[in-house]
Design brief:
The chain is mainly α and 147 residues long. It has helices spanning 3-24, 28-31, 38-54, 59-66, 70-85, 91-103, 126-139.
Length: 147
């Protein structure tokens, strides 16, 4: 990478950090501090996901930017990947990734294998969902399903 490209990449990384801090309502100073409050941790996961997955930074480069060791960055990356596979684990974090990534020119739907809308019904235990489904079936007088 040439000197100009490195400067542009650094500015973009700093802007992603600023956007994540703004999204979660935290200061950049706290984001780079050793504090581990939930909004700070979630913001760091968002930054890690965007920089590593979408921008192509290495774990070490992300760690240097966030003042963390590469092992912490690997863990944060795995957490953020889980959010993106199933945003119900942390809807705010998954939405933050989508919002900030879209702002920086990445395609809008980053979720893998996730429906486009999330209803409160999706958070019900499986047994409750089965009861609801069976009550709907019985109200329609259906006795068998075609699979």
């Amino acid at each position: 990478m040439s000197g100009i490209e490195e400067v542009i990449a650094q500015i973009k990384a700093e802007q992603i950090v600023k956007d994540a801090a703004d999204y979660f309502g935290v200061s950049i100073e706290n984001l780079l501090s050793p504090k581990r409050h939930r909004p700070l941790v979630d913001a760091r996961c968002v930054i890690t996901y965007i920089l590593y997955t979408l921008e192509g930074y290495t774990y070490q480069e992300v760690g240097d930017l966030l003042h963390r060791c590469h092992a912490t960055i690997i863990y944060q990356q795995r957490v953020a990947e889980a959010w993106m596979r199933n945003p119900r684990f942390n809807q705010r974090g998954a939405k933050a990734i989508e919002t900030i990534a879209t702002k920086h020119g990445y395609y809008e739907n980053l979720f893998t294998d996730a429906p486009s809308d999330y209803s409160p019904r999706d958070r019900l235990p499986i047994e409750t969902r089965k009861k609801i489904a069976w009550s709907l079936v019985s109200s329609l007088n259906l006795t068998t399903f075609a699979v």
